[in-house]
Specification:
alpha/beta, 4 strands, Tautomerase/MIF_sf, 5-carboxymethyl-2-hydroxymuconate Delta-isomerase, 2 helices, Macrophage Migration Inhibitory Factor
């Protein structure tokens, strides 16, 4: 915990500094949500196909999901999502010809969540 997933349109691969975003996001999660830096894990997934509304093309999406153990206030979750959006503005260059849709959510991990580390 936290479990962070960043889904993004494949068209953004060359304009989205994912490593820089991740290295900036982890300390933000630590500061806002009182997580431990060594527990922050991020998976980036490029999606080949995205559809927005009834547009044939010309749109790109970034969606960040942060799963935390339950107990954070709604205010904390909102501060974290706002911080994520601010970071995205810093690490996403304009993509010519694409309308960009960026979103973020913080959700509580289910009570069944377990993990183990090895190595």
């Amino acid at each position: 915990m936290p479990q962070i997933t960043v889904d993004h349109s494949a068209q953004l691969t060359d304009v989205f500094d994912r490593r820089g975003f991740g290295l900036a996001l982890n300390p933000l999660v630590v500061e806002v949500a009182a997580a431990k830096i060594e527990n922050c894990k991020i998976v980036f997934r490029a999606t080949e196909e995205t559809v927005v509304g009834d547009a044939a093309d010309g749109h790109a999406i970034v969606h960040v999901t942060i799963g935390l153990l339950a107990g954070r206030s709604e205010e904390t979750k909102a501060r974290l999502t706002e911080g994520v959006l601010d970071l995205a503005r810093q690490f996403l260059k304009p993509a010519e010809g694409l309308a960009l849709h960026v979103s973020a959510e913080v959700r509580d991990l289910d009570d069944s969540y377990r993990k183990y580390d090895e190595g």
